[in-house]
Amino acid sequence: MFDEVSNRLRKQKNKFLSEDFLLQSDFAKVLYHDYAKDLPIIDYHCHLSPKDIAENRKFNNLTEIWLAGDHYKWRAMRTLGVDEKYITGKGSSDREKFQKWADTVPYTLRNPLYHWTHLELKRYFDIDVLLSPDTANEVYDKATALLQEPSHNTQGLLGMMNVETVCSTDDPIDSLEYHIQAKAEETQTNLFPAFRPDKAYAVENAADYLAYLAKLKTASNINIDSYADLLKALENRIEFFHNHGGRLSDHGLEQLYFFKLGQFDIEQLFKKLKAGQTLSLEEINYFKFETLLHLSRMYHAKGWTQQFHLGALRNTNDRMMRILGPDTGFDSIGDFSQAQALARFLNELDSTDQLAKTILYNLNPADNEVMATMIGNFNDGSIRGKIQFGSGWWFLDQKDGMEKQMNALSNMGLLSCFVGMLTDSRSFLSFPRHEYFRRTLCNLIGKDVENGELPADEKWLGKIVSDICYYNAKNFFQFEK
């Protein structure tokens, strides 16, 4: 009896991260292995360092590449009671930091971190053991040794995952020197910039904003003495990005805003800022609205795709903000009102036929159906899938979140036109998230076939899967080397 139970448990254990991981039907297995698995990756939104790509950076150890900057891991460690000196602090070694992460991993069961951790160890380092306090040194030493090999420099890691294209996230003032260098060296993975002008309308603090305008003046070589000058400077930088392969913009916002144009005199608001005066909340939101409207029209003129990441409640912990600064893992899902202003903003652009290709990313799952129906309001037949409901983002880029996003899109739009997954990551070890998405997608469709809700048409469903995983994005963005 004991042997029978032991054998059964071993068999169950061996299913974890097997070649059929997450694939719960025979049809799902066929879809993944024959139509999704080997396709190249187009990661059209990430936060990888262009410098690290262009210079083919070698990382000194596993902590340096895997834990630095990873808010997901930091939050889990803090929840478990790990002291900050082992997370972001300077009072511990890289090996000690890794040991604390290894102590944490067994407690992350049912959090996507548990899956991602072991997928990344397996795919990049051929490490099959479960990470725990007992295996920490073995894992750290093997991975760190491999990171010293040319195969595990940044470009090697991207090639290992068959990453065809990455789009970084870049401020308008960026020189794009590393994008230019990577192109000149003809790196295996194409690197393109994406225009992220959030600071160009971040007018909450006049002093900070004026400091940014000084940098924008230098980058554009345009004196910015008026709001009209600001728009000229931004248009100058859009042209610069376009000339270096940029075809996307991106914006991180709690919500989009809508006002009647001219409700405030934008030049007067700009003068107040130049004088160091603080704007009211309504004036701040109007400034964002009108600036985004002008930018969106510029994107349309260039044939770009605009992305809006909506719904994050950022930097909520004042005490930790004072200690660690912004973007250190103290953000959450917000419950902002999205539908009405979003519809009016998109309609304002569409009314003059100046609505660019658009991807809407939603962070609150309560708004999934809002976004899934919103895109249908502005798909006008001019471009296949012109307005997209973006993949599960940030807290929602896990199995349940991705399934909910795809179910909402399937029920209220066309999943077949979806441009698929992206990492939104700062880590060169995050690309197995594309595998995770592809397995989840194939399992979702395979389950429908198993239930008799879809026909077992392998070629057609295989084509749909391949399109979502790769070809839709390739055709949608039209990157030019």
Question: How would you characterize the overall build of this protein?
Answer:
- The protein is 50% helix and 8% strand.
- By secondary structure, the chain is α/β, with parallel strands linked by helices.
- Helix 2 packs across helix 19, helix 2 runs parallel beside helix 20 (458-477) and helix 16 (339-350) packs parallel to helix 17 (368-378).
Q: What overall form do the CA principal axes indicate?
A: globular
Given as residue ranges, the uncertain stretches (5+ residues, pLDDT < 50) are none
The helix/strand order is HHEHHHHHHHEHEEHHEHHEEHEHEHEHHH
Strand order of the largest sheet: 4-5-6-9-10
Strands, total number:
10
Fraction of helical residues: 40-55%
Distance between the termini: 63 Å
Biggest beta sheet summary: 5 strands, parallel
DSSP strand content = 5-15%
Rg calc: 23 Å
Structure annotation, total helices: 20
Structural class of the helix and strand makeup? alpha/beta
Mean pLDDT: 96
Task: List the defining traits of the structure above.
single chain; 3-stranded parallel β-sheet; alpha/beta; 481 residues
Task: Give the arrangement of secondary structure elements.
Layout: H1 2-14, H2 26-36, E1 41-43, H3 50-54, H4 62-66, H5 71-79, H6 94-104, H7 112-125, H8 136-146, H9 154-160, E2 163-167, H10 177-184, E3 190-192, E4 194-195, H11 206-220, H12 227-243, E5 248-253, H13 266-274, H14 281-302, E6 305-310, E7 312-313, H15 318-324, E8 332-333, H16 339-350, E9 357-362, H17 368-378, E10 387-389, H18 399-412, H19 432-450, H20 458-477
Parallel strand pairs: 1-2, 2-3, 4-5, 5-6, 6-9, 9-10
Antiparallel strand pairs: 7-8
Helix pairs in contact: 2-19, 2-20, 11-12, 12-14, 16-17, 17-18, 18-19
